[in-house]
Description:
The chain is an alpha+beta fold. The protein is built from 43 helices and 27 strands. The strands form six sheets. Strands 1, 2, 3, 4, 5 and 6 form a six-stranded antiparallel beta sheet that branches. It starts with 13 loop residues before the first strand and ends in a 5-residue tail after the last helix.
Amino acid sequence: MSGSSAAPCRFAHYFAICGIDTETGLEPDELAALYQWLEADRQGRDPDTAATGENFEQSPLKRTFKSKVLARYPQNVEWNPFDQDAVNMLCMPKGLSFRTQADQRDPQFHSFIITREDGSRTYGFVHTFYEEVTSPQICSAMHTLYQMHNAESTPSSSSSSSSMDSLASSLDEADSPTSSSSSSRRAGGYDSSRDTLYVSKALCLITPMPFMHACRRFLSQLHRAVTADVAPPLPLESYVHNILYEVPLPAPGRSLKFHGVYEPIVCQRPGLGELQLADFPLAEAFTLLGAENLVQVFTCTLLEMQILLYSHDYQRLMTVAEGITTLLFPFQWQHVYVPILPASLLHFLDAPVPYLMGLQSKEGTDRSKLELPQEANLCFVDVDNHYIELPEDFPQFPNKTELIQELSEVLLSFGLSANTGAPPRTRTSPGSTPGSTPSTPGRERKTVALRQLEDDGRNGNLAVEELAVLELLQGNATLERLQALTKRTGVTVARVDALRAGVKAQGTEGQGGRTAAEEEELRNAKLNVQLREVFASRFTTMFADYEAFVIQSAPDLESWLTNREQMHNFDKASFLSDQPEPYLPFLSHFIETQMFATFVDNKIMSQWEEKEPLLRVFDARIDKARLYNVRAPSHRSSSYQRCSILKESAQAIEQRLMKIDHTAIHPHLLDMKIGQGKYAQGFFPKLQADVLNAGPTNNKWSHRTATAQRRKDRHRQQTEHLALDNDLKEKYMQEARSLGKNLRQPKLSDLSPAVIAQTNWKFVEGLLKECRMKTKRMLVEKMGREAVELGHGEANITGLEENTLIASLCDLLERIWSHGLQVKQGKSALWSHLLHYQAREEKLEQQQQAESPVCPALRKSDCFLAMPSLRVFLIQDMRHIQSMSEIKTDVGRARAWIRLSLEKKLLSQHLKQLLSRQALTKKLYKRYAFLRCEEEKEQFLFHLLSLNAVDYFCFTSVFTTIMIPYRVVIIPIKKLSNAMTTSNPWVCVSGELGDSGIMQIPKNVLEMTFDCQNLGKLTTVQLGHDNAGLLAKWLVDCVMVRNEITGHTYRFPCGRWLGKGVDDGSLERVLIGELVVPSGEEDSGRGCRTPPLQRSPSQTRRISITSLSGRGYKPTSAQIQEAIGESVNNIIKHFHKPEKERGSLTVLLCGENSLVAALEQFFHHGFKSARLFQKTVFVWDFVEKAVAYMESADQMGDLQETAEPLGMTCQSLCHYVNSINSTPRNIGKDGKFQLLVCLGARDRLLPQWLPLLVECPLILRMYEDTALLRDRSTVSTLIGVLETIHDFPITLEASLVKGIDL
């Protein structure tokens, strides 16, 4: 067909007409029949016996009948093939609709979008009107249907109890009451002898770019030409031919004028450096939702949640969807995008992927009737009632308040209010019903003058009134004071200068000689671009430095594409560490999204290919911002930067519309025979195909584009030789950009059950792939950091990043559990399944009370002689979550349960257990559901199993306020002492979040349980007794403490006596804990973090001469010095980690290989512990004697002549030692030495005290000549090492310093 080469720059590709096919007559919509088939299948009835006929319950005028594409011109355009099913379905999403003369029959306009597999889009614009039915067959068929309906109609209700049905019924409900009266003369009836029947017909333009206003005006003029009393100047064919073949697309940065039937139409296209074309009025989206709600929906879109728009008006759905997606610049929505979801595609709401869809609401059905398959991650937008429902706990957009303030001011400067819309609701308020909620008092505080101004802003804003208001504001002192006051209190008021600007602008506008419609269009275009600029400037400031964090590692495109999956493209951790704190919750989620990944991919590919247009504009803006403001270190501040180019952006548009760059050829007579092109008034005719199927061949710009196209073809052939074959590249890209790409747009055509099965199969594969990627990412992040740390300290990824990854895992599990779901209670599909499982198991349990318990999988503990093993029991974990009053919703419970299972390393096992009840899974899920695909399910559980390789504390660290039962077991060394003691023992357990307080242990009991608010990871246990009775001495091996919810067991090694006159005379000890790894896990791929735990610290900890294991152990001086260096190093490393991930400082000060242990070895080296009559001498004895010597020397005045600071130091040492000695606590000599070291480290005194001890003459008596303490150079090195800790604020745990009064 000729003229085809010109089509890429033709304004419109197709003109189509949809309506009733009089040849085939009335056909019930077979998609509706398919829907019934699906419903039957879902409810478990045999789908083939389900009624395939019409739905007799409904009045015939309300039923759906099949529409057809009656004509399209041209037949085909090669690069944009005509998709007949899709166009038909989207022109008439509900099929044909019939009316009688009694009904309203106003024409309607709506737009739609078709997204192709590669993500490119085509827009459709539809003008629907009602045309009288002239065919007697159709009238009589309708008459017959009415008679059958009246005969059949009985007051039975068809609504089934199944939850998903209500979705179907809410969409099929008759709008008029179908009472069982037999006369057809009731509302909505039809009698062929008396009534006139009308049927809908649609005129549709299909264009490559969204010139919504221009197409709307062209179609309405075309319709007016048919209904007008006087025929238009030219045949209709001339106008259609003109827009199809003679009107070009405007060039970038230019405007174009072409002619409709009655008046000219103007459109303009943004230049290359501007934001891309968006012709849908954002003002309408803001007025429908209100600025606050719109920003919240925008945030949900950025975080790739599921967004469902709900409105009775197709055009509103389109306006809001397109509005939100254009605000995403420079990012693009990467997932399913169906702003108008035809009734027959409802099963798409089942899609377990992020989506943005629009659903038409029937009059009279409200939100509560709408049952959706998955709501855990759903943002529900009720456009008509101006209200939204948000998913639980999602992060706020950075600087949200200031952003809303700036948007409101832009809206006010155009005379619009930003405050429509009910306040958003989260999912936690189930009882609320949608409806227009009254606005809050804050919204009422606008001054009267401004409210009037806003109102008339909606009605074309007459300049005179606005001037009057301005004069009123300027001339009235009270009002001026009021305005100053409102400014101070932060109430939004239109700024007077904005008003002035508006008035000035309108003064000039009125004279342009343009029509009201053109005025409105210009206003819309200016407002659109200003609102979009506000959002764009947010991203320019937030991502100004993104390029620095893009990792360019591949040498060429091909190798990059092949290794895309394995590569890290963006240094997320460094990027986040560079951002202001308040932005982190949002950014950490956002940089995990597909749209951000694609953005970074495009950036990397721009090395080898032409830049993607959005990226080009964005990068240019960042460069420009850098030129104007050399970004000082201030960029980390979270202060809000306003958009500075609002005026310029609006001016560019105004200039284009004031001065038209190009005028298209006028419509003209075509080469038609006389008599062709005649039609009856009021009926849109079939046009002459022969003149419309081919464009002109001699058109100057079609020739121009043909040569351009040839040039392009040549260029393409060359690049294809050089680069990868394009198909191959596209294939790589498809695979590289994981799930959702190939499902961007459901295939709107052949919807046989086979196609639906195929789509679901794609979903299943996609979910599995996503699961593989997520678990791999979680492992790599966790283990990567651990490997770097080489097992030292608490290796951990940033808590923030870990939380983000776990949240996205929770979201993935919710999506998997809601795929193919048919029975659900509550908002969470996973929790619903767990509840069903719980109900069944508890029933079974009651039946088998006499027999053994249901789930005997036991978990052996490391120390089976002491700690009774904890039963692994899925339902027990559920009960723990159910008893937590802090969690109020099902979605919250499901997430807590996932976190708990992950922390216990039981997630895979629990889910396997849950899915092993196949009868239950069959009852709850459709055949095609992910959970019923055996092989995929197995692989999925295997991926989750891999997470057991790392330690998560994602439950303990998040639910910090809950009560947790703990179990304590004390293990004495039985060989060497009595197992029991006559004294009264006590214990106090401390963790990162607090301590349990002192608890008495009942006599002769070595095990106790207690409830206490979450202590976090456990750090120390204080153990002691009151020395009462004959057998008061007690030799304790260790204390075991277990968190009974998470099953984490901690071992606190002791290995020493508690008692007067034995060991160092200690009646209480502070024990340092370590996490015990359950023995069953050794083989299942444990993480590489924790060093081998078999060696208890008692072997190396105390080198006290009496310590049982210390007798034979003598470290060399080199080993001792190394140990000191290592311990100080660990403390410094600790402080270099982000605060939330530091772990326990107590362990580094007092645990194994700690500072205290190392210094103890230092002081023990060469220490003469002569056993006079078996009495051991301790290091503390040396310290005490040294202090006594200093004090006596001080009194005798020997120290008078020493330098002042030294005297002070001497006093501080004496003061500390005496305070420690006079504490009411019965800590032994080693305990006292530990305390002195800890306090000295905290108060930065250790390096000053050491010289005093070295100078003391007692050292000659108590230490050998070879002792390290007597080696000057070693001591000064030690002092240097200890001084390095001074830069850090050391805080001591309460359990260490209790009872010390300094």
